[in-house]
Amino acid sequence: LDFCVILWSFRVFLWLVCVFLGSFCVCACCQLLIYIYIYIYSTYTFCVFWLFVCFLSHFDNFIPAVWVFSLSFCVFFGLCDVCVISRCVQGFAAELSEEVKTLGIPSEVIDMKDYDPDDQLADECTSRTVCVFIVATYTDGRPTENAQWFCKWLEEASTDFRYGKTYLKGLRYAVLGLGNSAYVGHYNTVGKNVDKWLWMLSGVRIMTRGEGDCNVVKSRNGSVQDDFLAWKAHFLRRLQALARGDSGSRSSKSSCMKTDGADHEGEEPTLTNHSSEEELMETSSDEEQSDERTSGSVVDVEDLGNLMDSVKKSKVPETHVSVIQKVSSILLLFRKRKLWILYPRVCLRNMYSRVKSLFAGYKLIGSHSGVKLCRWTKSMLRGRGGCYKHTFYGIESHRCMETTPSLACANKCVFCWRHHTNPVGTEWLWKMDPAEKILEEAMEKHQNMIRQFKGVPGVLPERYQEGLAIKHCALSLVGEPIMYPEINTFLRLLHSQRISSFLVTNAQFPQEIRNLVPVTQLYVSVDASTKDSLKKIDRPLFKDFWPRFLDSLRALGEKRQRTVYRLTLVKAWNVEEMQSYSELIALGQPDFIEVKGVTYCGESSASTLTMANVPWHQEVVAFVRQLADMLPQYEIACEHEHSNCLLIAHTKFKVDGEWRTWIDYERFQELVEAHEASGGTRSFSALDYMSQTPHWALFGAQEQGFDPADTRFQRRNKTKDVSGC
Prior knowledge:
alpha/beta; Rossmann fold; TIM Barrel; 23 helices; EC 4.1.3.44
């Protein structure tokens, strides 16, 4: 009785304890379920285990077909003169190559420093080549010296929409990473990354990534040499399994870069391996020590379609096929929906934190700025031609810095090449960094990116030296640079460094346009010619976007320096509004009109554009001809066929029958200095710093805008690149 009285007196306390314990148990169970979900989702363990354990136990013919093709083989390695591990890399590569040759398979060992992936790696996709990458992790998780450029290119390509998710589709590869597990935070980082990047580009693993550990205490086989021997034995078995269906005629070419697979066309089954946002699946080598009869035993969810085809073609009972179909459909649905609500999310107000993980390849500056190396900068460093600005206005693409002081934008354009991962807003909401800091860090980061090209195959030494001296700045990277409150200070700092300025705005800030100091060239993006189409294409945030748009064009017409309308053609969206475009041109009276076909930026949930919306170059030319015929004071001046872009120029730039669309940059700097020295009273116009356009840049020239001083280069077996900058 006394005990009951005591319990009753403490009933409130006991009730609270029960509630607390119950809540704790519920939370713990939920968290456990989340971890189980993430584990199953990220590794596809359930898919592989269920399909291959349950069904293989019931019938023997549920085995995907072995690849049948003539093999060649190459080993890529990276090393460093002062790195002990990297010396093992070279020895392992040579040893593996000799072992492969004993199997009658042509083999080659390649130093990554002497290999240009931009030129040659895509060729391995069409040849019957198995590529092995033996890479070591050096200080702070970085690649060794010889592998730095290869790894940097691979990382950028895996996140660059211009290459696409299927750029290395058909490449068969294996990765062996060497490292020391004593360095916990960086153990085998390079090997993991190389494997991940190749997979993101749709390369096909022929086996799980191997690891060699220099830490003898934790090494699986006792030493890095023994780890290699164990991996090598497993790899050779895998290689023999791939070649088992060979007809006996092997490729006579030993170079992995020149193996011709045309004679075997159609022999290999299509294996898709699309990249996704999930983490790369990691498994241990022990998981693949079983008999090699199950070719391609690691199956991603995306490959279930191909797996189902194999099942249907084999003699499998219909009941089993039905079950497999149900399981695969559930897994695919599970993957597509992603159930984001289960993932803990942290929302940060700082713009830098928000975009840090989203802008692959960007060098972020402070809290709201960024710089990135343009693809045309890389191209011109190799003497392969510059961007359309080189053709139209004479900039040196390898000396151009592409940056922005504001990653935020007031539009959400359907063709945005950042897929709307950047912040948006109608006013400045972020902690502002000083213009001096932004420019200093932008130049430093840009020059550091240029320095990474030192010694890269194909880079011209004289272009490399010139590239370190920045001469032009394209404020068109992403976002709306004119939103930055200190944009005029930033422009003055550029000019004080004798750097020309190319500023792009989306025509939503008319007052800021009027307040701008003189720039080398001022752009306004005119993506549509009517209110409805502008709303549909640009999706502006301002409710009064149309009055702002028209007022911005009027403000542009008040400027005395060079002004440009930038028209982006999107087939089936804005190519039928010819008369409306001519009216907008009459409103702003720009010096130049750039007309460019939209660039396809890949699939995105934020955009419905497809390749069908990308106009062919001849379609852009036809549009420009019609538009120029409606403009009495304008004519077609220049063409850059590679960028799918043409330039319409005001006839005032046609002096004595010769076009002068190029810019005298030194003269511009002199005029700006005089303008600043006079306190703004001494003005100048676009005609004061124009220069003659070379014949190869003119519309109708045989070169179609390609500088004959450079060497034309086109990737083989890839779709045509129509991207610009």
